[in-house]
Amino acid sequence: MSSGWNNYGLPFIPGYxxxxxxxxxxxxxxxxxxxxxxxxxxxPSVGIGQEPLLxxxxxxxxxxxxxxxxxNTEKNQIR
Length: 79
Known about the structure:
Oligomer: single chain
Strand order of the largest sheet: 1-2
Number of helices: 1
Structural class: alpha+beta
């Protein structure tokens, strides 16, 4: 069971989470570039406030499965 306090010194209330009070940057990355006068969309590389995007983060389990797949593919190609 978790304690009754969170990392920011505020009480834990079920169903309510406090935002990070230490964060002061809420800028959003530009996602348009211009080429020959036309706006070209691109995927953002970082999230709001320069936080890493969850879609860009790979878990250790995912990396391990990719490694295992490439090893199996290489072994099959050698045979």
